[in-house]
Amino acid sequence: MIKEFSISTTGGTELIDITSKVAGVVAGSKIKEGVAVVYVPHTTAGITINENADPSVKRDILMELNKIIPFNDNYSHAEGNSAAHIKASLIGSSLTVIITGGRLLLGTWQGIYFCEFDGPRRRKVFVKIVKSEEKKVIK
Ligand code: ZN
User: Fold this and answer.
1) Global pTM exceeds 0.90
2) How far is ligand 1, taken at its centre, from the CA of residue 79, in Å?
């Protein structure tokens, strides 16, 4: 199954915790074992997993991305948002998360973040859930 949800971003550059939205799609699917592919169909936004306990982690990630990829740098792209395109490619546009026991297999401090690099905009996120029969964990 594939499910879509929308989010409205409010800032030019921001990380938005969408863990509960993705978890809701997984719960609604009734699939106990499998994988969730979380995909962002945009060229100036991305998706990543990182700490969702201390909000300063989000701030630090954005601060360093903005240093590495300055907003103005003699870019050629006429739309004027090259920095957002470059950040989107660095961060990536999809994630794969294991589903086990009907839940996303995330670490204690991990959350799924939608990464807006050229907001505010209305954005889409697709979640494709693929069922598997395998449950055995090999250590
Ligand atoms: Zn552009």
Assistant:
1) yes
2) 5
